[in-house]
Amino acid sequence: MLSTRDLVLCALFAALLGGLGMAPPIPLGFLPVPVTAQTLGVMLAGTILGAKRGGIAALLFVLLVAAGLPLLAGGRGGIGVLMGPTGGFVLSWPVAAFVTGWLAERFATNANPVRLFAVSVLGGILVVYAGGIPWLWLVAGLPIDKAVFGSLAFVPGDLIKAGVAAVAASGVRRAGILPIHA
Amino acid sequence: MLGLYLHRESVIHRLPAGAKLGGLLLVTVAVLALPSAWGALAAGLIGAAVLVAARLPAARVLAELRAPVVMLTLLFGFQALLAGGGWEETAIAVARFATLILLATLVTLTTRVMDMVDLFERLFGLLRPVGVNPAKMALMLALTIRFIPLLGEQVREVRMAQRARGVERNIAALFVPLLVKILTMADDLTAALEARGYDPAEPETKNST
User: Fold this and answer.
1) Which among A22, A69, A85 has the least Cβ separation from residue B68?
2) CB contact under 8 A, B155 and A23
3) CB neighbours of residue A167 within 10 Å
4) Where are the transmembrane segments (chain A) (predicted)?
5) How many domains is chain B built from?
6) Does residue B157 form part of some domain?
7) Is residue A65 within 8 Å of B4, Cβ to Cβ?
8) SS3 call for A33
9) Nearest CA distance, A127 vs chain B (angstrom)
């Protein structure tokens, strides 16, 4: 059962996803494309809150986007965006946060950034692509191999985000504020 | 809280959120089931009718559609070139999805965020048998809406502090203080909720949003 503190944490992380969408993209010194940090927030929700609370946080965010709040990067939102060709990449976030959290609860319970990175890649990148690419195929009829090829362009940026999520989660774990099994 | 909602006095705006969402679902299923051209035509006519009935400015609505249509056209055009398919087929396929996205956008533009959230809460009630507590979901949605501007402010604040220290390109230096701040805020907010008598064990605690 969710305690009062769990409810607050889920809402705060859902709001963090929204806050990250509002912030101007973060410039990365060596990449030409600025990084919008929302998927980073999904990884952090999983690694810091764990499977259940992380999944709920991302679900709250997706529901509010569907309700018509312009929370996605660039002020986009509404059911139209979720139904559009790239909607699967957003709809997969609750599952991605849950899987990241589930893996973190089992394989990355301390402040080891390498393990946190691996968990973020599996949950925060692989699951998101596993949701987004079939959606792209379903809605836009883009053949799977072409969709996979096109999505590869985003992998370097996503790997950097997973790295940042790992370093940040590791820093928070070292600060010892929130053990994963709270 | 500002949403994408665009207020007008119209029949469409007054329709309950559930009716609009249900209608969207039905039309979507129908369009996907019908042969391409007819489905697109039917959905397009419905979309145009709703657009007029809702008294929405067409320019604003079409602006919402530009990004997905450009992307769909690129994707389908790319395929037509590779597979040697006809341009008519591409146009029909783009039209089909563009009209569905148009209808979904119209639902969003004519429905208040709070009405949509209320609808979600009622739908969560259906999930009670599998252990979902609709009152808790409702409270979390309300809290999230309240926290979003707060968190946006926190993100900006921490970034400004890092810029002042000359470490704005170090992302770890952004996220660690941000997360620590969020986690300490959680303690204060939990205490504030409990001080106001919120008890999560009470099954029917329905906090007004």
Assistant:
1) A85
2) yes
3) 19
4) 31-49, 56-73, 79-104, 116-137
5) 2
6) yes
7) no
8) coil
9) 23
Low-confidence ranges of chain A (pLDDT < 70): 23-36, 141-142, 177-182
All structural domains of chain A with their residue ranges:
4-175
Give the pLDDT confidence score for residue A81 in this predicted structure: 86
**Residue-wise pLDDT tens digits, B149-201:** 889 888 888 888 888 888 766 767 778 888 998 998 999 999 999 998 888 77
Put simply, the answer to whether B182 touches A83 (Cβ < 8 Å) is no
- The residue among B108, B139, B158, B205 with the most chain A CBs within 10 A of its CB, best to mutate, is B108
Model ipTM?
0.89
Exposed / middle / buried, residue B126 (Cβ in 10 Å: 0-12, 13-18, 19+): exposed
Tokens of A16: 């963090």
Contacts of A139 in chain B (CB under 8 A): 97
- Residues whose CB is less than 8 angstroms from the CB of residue A32 and which lie 6 or more positions away in sequence, other chains included: none
**Can you read off the two tokens belonging to residue A175?**
């600060």
Cα torsion angle, B48, B53, B58, B62, sign? negative
Q: List C-alpha distances in Å: A33 to A158, A161, B191.
A: 12, 13, 42
Q: How far apart are CA A52 and CA B70, in angstroms?
A: 37
Each residue's pLDDT tens digit, A107-149: 988 889 999 999 999 999 999 999 988 888 877 766 777 778 7
Of A8, A15, A67, the CB nearest to B117: A67
B104 and B171 inside one domain: no
Are residues B85 and B22 part of one domain? yes
Token code pair at residue B111:
């429905």
User: What phi, psi does A86 have (nearest 5°)?
Assistant: -100, 10
Is B71 in Cβ contact with A14 (below 8 Å)? no
**Taken in order B90, B93, B98, B101, is the CA torsion positive or negative?**
negative
The domain defined by A4-175 folds into: Arp2/3 complex 21 kDa subunit ARPC3 (1.10.1760)
**Closest-CA residue of chain B to A169:** B176
